[in-house]
Design goal:
By secondary structure, the protein is an alpha/beta fold. 45% of the residues lie in helices and 17% in strands. The structure holds pyridoxal-5'-phosphate.
Length: 494
């Protein structure tokens, strides 16, 4: 399987190169040249396996290369999905009620769905780097809206041959997210706040990746950059697995018959999670609709309604900060697929996006996207109301991001009457956003101190806080640096 770029069809890369490099030289994203297929008998076979078995199989379809991954993939997967996940199922499916199910993706060490890919990526990346860049040190650059940063730090800390620098919007993450990153352990890590929002941090990282002077300096030192953001295919591929896994679990429990369609509702920011669902569907998993849920930053809702992507709008800091994004990077991969793999068209739209902040796709293309995607958004009051309802009516404690998806799913069901089984991606532990969740559950203001809010949420619900979050209070703060958006390049060589 070879990879090409969304912006230049003459690019050809092996899976090793795609993962080690992270982003294509001209700024496009790596995409597989073909999509492997998954037939019903294979799904049935996967249903008989555990999570690591399912992961090894799905990944082996995308990560093939001469000089191969054989054997190594099994090794990588087994190192990733260990007891660092508090649930042995890794990504368990819970019945919420009626035809609604929760796919819990937050049982990893940092309590958000990013762990599922980022516990695996360091193993894929070091294996890839060994194959193609013998001896080079890999410097991982990450822009984070809150959860990726911590998950990447935890995945890469003290991994030999790597360093990792994480940039977060200094006022744009939750108190708990900031604390998680500021207390990160490891000798190869660095955490920097950026005065700006997530899009500024992401644009800054993308600019560094393609800056010839910085790249030359780094190469002279025997080092190379890579990305742990979902622009890296090595982040995307592991996320395809849990869509397949959830489907298998529903078949195993007799909730659906093999071949019956299932919808997925996904709280969306950078479009990485839901895009993995689209790849699962394109492989042949019986996925009905992919329901794209946004918060008050509704750029994707508008795009999927009108075909116009327009980032020229106010940016809102919300209680679901990991979705506070106006430039959803992975949409580029979907555009490439929907445009019949026309890299010229995609490159043109991305140029327009960079220059004017806006582009528009043709009506026929919008129509084909809408055959797979539904979209909706959720404001702050609706987020709180969705948390309140889920807890008091259905006994489920949802975080602020997951609540957006619950809200959008409810609206979808009310609007269409469609009662097809739907799996909601639960992307973070509610304890990660304890103050907002507590306030939504009780209707009263939460304690201002985040650890007091944690304790109060435990007391209110009787549910246990994940140990790594509770333990943060005792950990020393190591990183307090903040820089201007123009200064990020000064922090990447350390
Ligand atoms: C990152 C994140 C999202 C958004 O996922 P994308 O892949 O960026 O669309 C949603 N919820 C939580 C909790 C996250 O950490």
């Amino acid at each position: 399987m070879l990879y090409t770029s969304t912006r230049d069809s003459s690019v050809q890369a092996t899976s090793f190169q795609a993962i080690a490099q992270g982003i294509s030289g001209e700024g496009g994203l790596f995409v597989p040249e073909a999509i492997p297929s998954l037939n019903p008998s294979k799904i049935e076979a996967l249903a008989g396996m555990d999570y690591t078995g399912r992961a090894e199989y799905i990944l082996s379809k995308f990560l093939t290369a001469q000089g191969g991954w054989e054997g190594e993939l099994r090794d990588c997967v087994c190192k990733a999905y260990t007891d660092r996940f508090s649930d042995p199922a890794v990504a368990p499916v819970k019945h919420l009620g009626g035809n609604d199910y929760m796919l819990e993706l937050f049982h990893g060490p940092t309590s958000a769905f990013k762990d599922i890919a980022l516990q695996l990526l360091p193993h894929l990346l070091t294996a890839s780097a060994k194959k193609i860049q013998s001896g080079k040190e890999i410097v991982i650059l990450v822009a984070t809206s809150g959860d990726t940063g911590k998950a990447a730090l935890e995945g890469f800390r003290d991994v030999p041959g790597t360093k990792i620098a994480v940039f977060y919007p200094s006022e744009g993450v939750s108190a708990m997210q900031k604390r998680q990153m500021a207390t990160q352990e490891g000798g190869n890590v660095r955490v920097v706040g950026v005065r700006g929002n997530f899009d500024d941090a992401q644009n800054g990282v993308k600019a560094i990746f393609t800056d010839p002077a910085i790249l030359a300096g780094l190469a002279a030192e025997g080092r190379a950059f890579s990305s742990a953001n979902s622009i890296n295919w090595g982040r995307l591929a592991p996320q395809i697995v849990y869509y397949v896994s959830a489907y298998c679990d529903l078949v195993n429990r007799g909730r659906i018959a093999l071949g019956e369609p299932v919808h997925f509702a996904v709280p969306t920011g950078n479009f990485g999670n839901i895009l993995a669902g689209y790849f699962a569907k394109a492989m042949g998993l019986p996925v009905g609709k992919l329901i794209c849920a946004s918060n008050r930053n509704r750029v994707l809702t508008d795009f999927l309604e009108t075909g116009v992507y327009d980032r020229n709008r106010p940016f809102y800091a919300t209680s679901a900060p990991s979705m506070d994004i106006l430039i959803s990077s992975n949409l580029e991969r979907l555009l490439w697929l929907a445009a019949g793999r026309d890299s010229g068209l995609v490159a043109g739209w991305m140029r327009q996006l960079a220059q004017s902040g806006r582009y528009e796709i043709p009506p026929a293309m919008l129509k084909s996207l809408r055959a797979s995607f539904e979209a909706g958004c959720c404001d702050e009051a609706q987020t709180a109301a969705a948390i309140h309802r889920a807890w008091h009516d259905r006994g489920y404690l949802a975080d602020t991001h997951t609540a957006c998806a619950l809200h959008v799913l409810d609206e979808y069901r009310a609007r269409t009457g469609d009662e097809t089984p739907c799996v909601v991606a639960a992307t973070a532990s509610p304890f990660k956003f304890a103050a907002d969740v507590l306030q939504a559950v009780t209707g009263r203001p939460a304690p201002a101190d985040e650890f007091a809010a944690l304790a109060a949420l435990e007391a209110e619900t009787g549910l246990p806080c994940p140990a790594p979050l509770a333990g943060l209070e005792e950990k020393p703060v190591r990183f307090t640096e903040v820089c201007e958006k123009g200064e990020m390049a000064d922090f990447v060589r350390f």
